[in-house]
User: Which sequence fits this backbone?
């Protein structure tokens, strides 16, 4: 029959995935509201969505990096891990602890530029200034700001790896995975501040 729907394994999995996402979305939105109660943002769901979209855009940018093609797949895998930490696990961490990151974000929404306060040895002012720059370019989103800092962390891990490759004189992608998935590096380079 022409134009009839065919039940192939791919379409069945796609249908199951769509149903699963549809069923899980209300629960996940509830959890975002619950865990994000400390974040100074009136519409935390929209804030989270902006962070998720920004994570996808930054992930897509990896294809444009001047990195060898063989490194791009591992970088995408590491970016996925960082996004799971930044937009997943960090929700629990932020729910449990009051963080300086909330103040950085809140101050970044000021109408007056804080850039004149930036300088050597002024960590808090520098973070607020960097956050203000992003909030001036993109919609002010706490989660998008976290994602930007997570990307800086990934770039730092990758540059460290490339330096190690030059020093050792050989490629070993396992070293990139060790650096990128090392628990303290994965966690602390995924947080704002």
Assistant:
């Amino acid at each position: 029959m022409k134009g009839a729907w065919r039940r192939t394994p791919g379409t069945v999995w796609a249908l199951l995935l769509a149903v699963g996402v549809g069923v899980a979305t209300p629960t996940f939105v509830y959890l975002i509201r619950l865990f994000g109660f400390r974040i100074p943002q009136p519409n935390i769901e929209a804030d989270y969505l902006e962070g998720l979209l920004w994570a996808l855009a930054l992930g897509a940018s990896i294809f444009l990096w001047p990195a060898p093609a063989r490194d791009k797949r591992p970088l995408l895998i590491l970016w996925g891990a960082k996004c799971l930490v930044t937009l997943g696990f960090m929700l629990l961490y932020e729910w449990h602890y009051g963080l300086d990151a909330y103040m950085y974000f809140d101050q970044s929404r000021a109408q007056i530029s804080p850039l004149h306060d930036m300088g050597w040895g002024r960590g808090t002012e520098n973070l607020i200034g960097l956050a203000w720059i992003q909030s001036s370019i993109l919609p002010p989103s706490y989660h998008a700001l976290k994602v930007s800092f997570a990307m800086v962390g990934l770039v730092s891990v990758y540059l460290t790896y490339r330096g190690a490759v030059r020093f050792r004189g050989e490629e070993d992608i396992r070293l990139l995975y060790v650096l990128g998935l090392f628990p303290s590096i994965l966690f602390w380079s995924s947080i704002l501040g």
Remarks:
- The radius of gyration is 20 Å.
- The CA atoms of residues 146 and 191 lie 6 Å apart.
